[in-house]
Amino acid sequence: MTTNGDAVKVVPVRHYGRWVAVCLAILVVAMVIHTLFSKLPTGHKVCHLVSGVRACHPGSTWRFSWTIVGQYFTTSEILHGLLTTVELTILAMIVGIVLGMTLAVMRLSPNRVLSMAAWTYTWFFRGTPVLVQLLVWFNIAILYPSLTLGIPFSNVTFIHFNTVTLFSAFTAAVVAFGLNEAAYMSEIARAGLIAVDEGQIEAATSLGMTRRQSLRYVVLPQAMRVIIPPTGNEVISMLKTTSLAGFVGVVELLGAASNIYSGNYEIMPLLLVASLWYLIVTTILSIGQFYLERHFAKGALRSPPPTPIQRVRQDVRGILLKFRTRRGALEPLR
Amino acid sequence: MSEHMVEARAVHKSYNGVEVLKGVDLTVERGEVTCLIGPSGSGKSTLLRCINHLEKHDAGELRVDGELVGYQMRGGKLHERNDKQICGERSRIGMVFQRFNLFQHLTVLENITIGQVKVKGISTEAARAKARELLTRVGLENKESHYPAQLSGGQQQRVAIARALAMEPKLMLFDEPTSALDPELVGEVLDVMKDLARSGMTMIVVTHEMNFAKEVADTVYFLDGGVIEESGNPREVLTAPKSERLRSFLSKVL
Predict the structure, then answer these.
(1) Is B107 on the interface with A (CB under 8 A)?
(2) Do A298 and B119 lie within an 8 Å CB cutoff?
(3) Among B91, B105, B114, whose Cβ lies nearest the Cβ of A222?
(4) Which residues is B87 bridged to in the sheet?
(5) Nearest to A126 by CA among A205, A187, A59, A204
(6) What is the model's pLDDT at position A325?
């Protein structure tokens, strides 16, 4: 800021309320960190020989049993459970996304029968708890002891399955989570498809593209920008929903942890082990989501949003600049 | 080969019971520029959209290059054409929209190649060469890797014209191509269109640019209330209108 070419000191607005809030936030964070690494007395005395003298002090242990957490964090049982959790998540999401996209396109079809069928599917699978659906699929053999592939309403059969062997606990979980997810994904995909401007479809049509071509080359790539963020949310939500698979005997991450603590009663440390792994996978997924969103934002923004590293660099540069200008007041503009 | 490029006889079209076109007759000759003028809601855009079958007309006869639009006459019956045939017809009719409608997720070059590659089955290399040639023609040779959002309205519309031309159309339809532009950008788009008209392209232009119509059009049609009120040579129609309605329309526009 200059008046008559002389440098004038600029006094920024003081945000007193914000400062109070910042202090409170720092206080809460400090309390959390303190309690995470606090200790509990064990009731026993611990004695050492210090230069020939016996010194005793009351024993203590981590409140959150970090030593035990560390012991179990990478045991093969936990890692196997983690692998099962990740497998379940990936398979169920593939089923959910593919079926969900199909349902969304059906829902938007000008044909009333197709759109009603898609609506009914969503209504049913969103309207009942996923745990109930899981139990139903696991017990589906009660309704259909065997499954055959043949011509409907005739005696011609091609393949015959025994339902109990086909629907293992794992398969039942993939089917239940996948079909349930499809209902949610179809709404997400539908929102994305609707969000694409109608002019885009008209332009594609006027070039001579078929409905399928304009969907594939014009509408879907643009719908992805709207579809990806909530889908990332769904993947993270699915990661944690898979813990329900323990109900039908799939040993996933939480199942593995509970198998261990039912033997050694270290309930809290093992729940912590599971939680930490869930957090780690969620973090990896969030990073992946960020870069996927960036990829599909092509053309929608004049410049892509900065990566976290770029943002940190910008922040540091901004703070440095602030200090420099505050100290010396602003240079006159040239 | 029939003598007329477009021929409309008593074309009707309604939306939800509201009649927008109430029997329109129009003839467009090869290599001619035809301008459709008239107040908003008069059916100009609808007529244009019927010609490339973006809208289905309800009654009347509409022919492009001698072929019925959307139908086929076989054994004394009109058979509706299937999607593939209709798409084939459309790919030979270029359309330019008021709001450009460039594909937002594709670069300028990709916008111009996608139709050639996916619809006409031309190799990517050949399509790129053609796209670059067209970009030079519309004066945007240095913008090929930009995204539409990074261009001005006038530049976007010129890309849209290049995109339509890439399909080597026999007929170009313009739906108010300069109505969404800032006044200072209108000229650059009209220049490209004039250049196109000089090259002998058959064009139908819905427009409010009376000077353009006067200068470039071979025939002007004035639509009002879903019917053609007046038509003919632009110098006569626009300077000495016969009907009262055209006179009052022109007094508002000019």
Answers:
(1) yes
(2) no
(3) B105
(4) none
(5) A187
(6) 61
Chain B hits for A217, CB-CB cut-off 8 Å, are 114, 118
How many CB atoms are located within 10 Å of the residue B78 CB? 12
Q: What is the ipTM of this complex?
A: 0.92
Contacts of B97 (CB under 8 A, 6+ apart): A199, A202, A203, B160, B175, B177
Q: How far away is chain A from the Cα of B237, in angstroms, using its nearest Cα? A: 31
* Nearest chain B Cα distance for residue A196, angstroms: 10
Contacts of B105 (CB under 8 A, 6+ apart): A221, A222, A225, A296, A298, A299, A300, B147
- Selecting from B83, B101, B119 the residue whose C-beta is nearest the C-beta of A199 gives B101
Give the pLDDT band of residue A334 (cuts 50, 70, 90): very low
User: Which DSSP helix (H) or strand (E) runs through A191?
Assistant: helix A169-195
Q: Is B216 exposed, middle or buried (0-12, 13-18, 19+ CB in 10 A)?
A: buried
Parallel, antiparallel or unpaired: strands A6-7 and A2-3: antiparallel
Residues B175, B207: Cα–Cα separation, whole Å: 7
Question: What is the Cα–Cα distance from A127 to A136, expressed in whole angstroms?
Answer: 15
Query: pLDDT band at residue B78, thresholds of 50, 70 and 90?
Result: confident
* From B54, B92, B118, residue closest to A209, measured CB to CB: B118
Contacts of A204 in chain B (CB under 8 A): 103
Residues facing residue A159 across a β-bridge? A149
Which pLDDT tens digit goes with each residue over A148-198?
Answer: 788 888 878 788 878 777 788 999 999 999 999 999 999 999 999 999 999
B168: left (phi over 0), alpha (psi -120 to 50) or beta: left
> In this structure, is the dihedral angle defined by the CA atoms of residues A19, A23, A29 and A32, taken in order, positive or negative?
negative
A interface test, pick of B97, B118, B145, B173 with most A CB neighbours within 10 Å: B118
Of the residues A207, A212, A214, A218, the best mutation for testing chain B's interface (the one with the most B CB atoms within 10 Å of its CB) is: A207
Alpha-carbon distances, residue B10 vs A269, B26, B57, B79, B232 (angstroms): 82, 9, 10, 19, 18
Question: What is the per-residue pLDDT for B206?
Answer: 96
Under 8 Å between Cβ of B59 and B15: no
pTM (predicted TM-score): 0.79
Residue B147 touches partner A, C-beta closer than 8 Å: yes
Record: contact A207-B149, CB cut-off 8 A: no
* Distance from C-alpha of A295 to C-alpha of A288, rounded to nearest angstrom: 11
Q: Classify residue A63 by its DSSP letter.
A: T
User: Is residue B1 very low, low, confident or very high in pLDDT (cuts 50, 70, 90)?
Assistant: low
Check: CB of residue A215 under 8 Å from CB of residue A132.
Answer: no
What integer pLDDT is reported at residue A40 of this predicted model? 87
From the CB of residue A63, how many other CB atoms can be counted at a distance below 10 Å?
13
